[in-house]
Amino acid sequence: MRTALVWLRRDLRLADNPALHAAASADRVITLYIDDPDRAANWAPGAASRWWLHHALAALDPDLRARGGALLLRRGDPLNCLREIISEFGIDAVYWNRCYEPAARARDRLIKATLREEGVEVQSFNGNLLVEPADIKTLQGEPYRVFTPFWRNAAQSARSSRPLPAPQRLGNSADVAALSASSTLPLGALELLPRIAWDSEFSDHWQPGERGAQQALRLFLDAPVERYKADRDRPDRAGTSSLSPYLAWGNISPRQILAAIDARAGRHPPDGEGADWFVRELGWREFSYHLLYHFPHTAERNMNPRFAEFPWAEPDPVLLQAWQSGRTGIPLVDAGMRQLWRTGWMHNRVRMVVASVLCKNLRYHWSHGARWFWDTLLDADLANNTQGWQWSAGTGADAAPYFRVFNPVTQGERFDPDGAYVRRYLPELERVPARWLQQPWKLPAAERAAAGIAGTVYAAPLIDLAQSRAQALTAYHASRPEPAGD
């Protein structure tokens, strides 16, 4: 009797799961998730991510049982846990889908070599990207640093493989569920849920797991995709896919999304450029993984070495906490940070604005923002989080230049013109007239009391946008860091 073990990580789904597909022909299939409290200590999953993980695991277990499998949960060092399970269940082969974070790659290389030396078959697969980061190179054989030529090359390979169906049956043995039940930890023992119920609104917005991912994809393809190019920058509209947390934990694969978009194109007349722009965003995700894979130091340090001597300011704890909690007095920034806290997600246009304020107006190193997002985002993903922050700070590959400073007032007036987004998350500004909503401190003094903002941070914001912008540009021109090369 051949027994296969599938080690699940950020691939919590049945469909288009190459490792699960490869294992399904075995007589017995054991699926395993290991919570490693010490894994990549600097970048262990944050609190919001762990909430998602808990509910995604809870959703996956019954789907596995329905196919004759079961989910085994363990906690501890992955190599030790794998060895224990290999011995306990008589495992012949171990399968997993590849991770690309620097610490995970090093860990997986060690585990693969060790288990093979011990006589166990080990295979790994690409389950989470359209293209392998190592497969896309410039004509000189180097990794890309600019998105457009990268995607021009990668897009040719992106549609080369189609998503795999979910296995109808996991092995031929009927004893898997019973064996697993006697050996697994209860889900609660992983202690993934927060001890303080700050996550009370998450379930109103999200359904972690494979079914939730498919539902979000269907809703997006029903209509919003047609308006994606125009609406993707509007935080006051439901114009984005909301798929990022599902992608981050592998409840859906990019191949599945791309196949669904192609299938829709075959059923519907052309819908403008919406679908093309969305596929391009999938390309940016691929580019982020490409960069992290080839430049692993970027999770901690600037991609552009010329920023090594840039005079970042020492964070003021009061200002940093005001930024984190959405109490700066700048409406679009505060709305975004409160959206993040309440829902575990923030609209991408607003992410760029709040990052610009932190890295440029406050001149704090981007790592302070990256750490906060890592802990509070449900879609926290090291590649995307790192490259997103480095792009906003001007320190990354193909980044917005540092001297491009987003003005949150004009950004709000342009992308939240009626103030619906700001009012949704800042009820204290409900009585501020629309004309002044994005800069309530300019409301005539006689009207501030009537608007309910007299004596509040919205009458006197903690950050002077004009003065801080000028100071940031002075620091930039004094240090003169140059853009990274192509």
Secondary-structure blueprint of this entry?
Blueprint: E1 3-8, H1 18-23, E2 28-35, H2 47-65, E3 71-75, H3 78-89, E4 93-97, H4 102-117, E5 121-125, H5 147-158, H6 176-181, H7 202-205, H8 210-222, H9 228-231, H10 244-248, H11 254-267, H12 274-294, H13 317-325, H14 331-343, H15 348-361, H16 366-376, H17 382-393, H18 408-415, H19 420-425, H20 445-451, H21 465-479
Parallel strand pairs: 1-2, 1-4, 2-3, 4-5
Helix pairs in contact: 5-12, 12-17, 14-15, 15-17, 16-17
Mean pLDDT: 94
Strand order of the largest sheet: 3-2-1-4-5
Which percent band covers the strand fraction? Answer: 5-15%
**CATH fold topology of the largest domain:** DNA Cyclobutane Dipyrimidine Photolyase, subunit A, domain 3
Which stretches are poorly predicted, pLDDT < 50 over at least 5 residues?
none
The overall number of domains is 3
Shape: globular
Distance between the termini: 54 Å
Rg from C-alpha positions?
24 Å
Q: What is the β-strand count?
A: 5
Task: Report the total helices.
Answer: 21
Structural class: mainly alpha
The CATH architecture of the largest domain is Orthogonal Bundle
Helix content: 40-55%
